[in-house]
Design a protein that fits this description.
Elements (H helix, E strand, L loop, with lengths): L1 E2 L29 H15 L5 E6 L1 E2 L11 H10 L4 E4 L4 E2 L1 E2 L1 H12 L5 E5 L6 E2 H12 L3 E4 L13 E2 L17 H15 L2
Length: 198
């Protein structure tokens, strides 16, 4: 399993099949360390072209088994709802693509059933979603109170990514077609998480 970290981009636009994945290895900083580990891994796999190896680049994943103290955006959102607290966030919008566990399992099955392949695939849902839409939907469905503060600072160990998802549909090559959108995934998995914590 790999991730979207291999792409050398600030994610002002979603990635596609032409987005470069090579970082300038002689001029990297700590933000690039994780990406470099993924690039090294994928490079080794491609060099063993005679072997059946598939790298799945996972940009975002959400399930009812998420660790709620992990500090991710959605886990903090669930915690706010569980604790009947106001959710405070900055005014910076972003777009993410949350993969449904069932779609991900379906993709893995397709990979296992495919022979004579050594390739990479970006993982995607039926439709990505913006932070503002997530907040709107969660507020409407779960009575979440949201406070937007005017602050563009964004803390992330790998840097802020405005559009962290891919529009590559190369997985059609192995007959993958997601059934669930990011919104459907967030709502269905959040409902299970919230029932569990009632």
């Amino acid at each position: 399993m790999s991730s979207g970290a291999v792409y050398d981009t600030k994610f002002d636009s979603p990635v596609d099949d032409k987005t470069p994945t090579i970082l300038d290895i002689n001029h990297n900083n700590s933000v690039h360390y994780y990406a470099l580990s993924k690039i090294n891994s994928e490079t080794k796999h491609r060099l063993n072209s005679e072997l059946n190896i598939i790298d799945l680049r996972i940009f975002n994943f959400f399930s009812k088994y998420i660790e709620l103290n992990s500090g991710f955006f959605l886990s903090e959102l669930i915690n706010a709802i569980n604790n009947n607290m106001k959710f405070v966030t900055n005014d910076v919008d972003f777009v993410r693509d949350y993969i449904n566990p069932y779609d991900f399992f379906s993709l893995i099955k397709n990979c296992v059933q495919t022979n004579n392949i050594n390739d990479t695939f970006d993982v995607y849902s039926k439709e990505p979603i913006s932070k503002s839409r997530i907040l709107e939907e969660m507020s409407n469905r779960f009575d979440l109170e949201v406070e937007i503060i005017d602050k563009d600072a964004f803390s992330s160990p790998t840097g802020f990514k405005k559009n962290y998802y891919s529009i590559s549909r190369k997985t059609a090559k192995i007959s993958y077609e997601p059934k669930y959108s990011s919104l459907e995934t967030i709502l269905s998995e959040a409902e299970v998480l919230l029932k569990r914590n009632l």
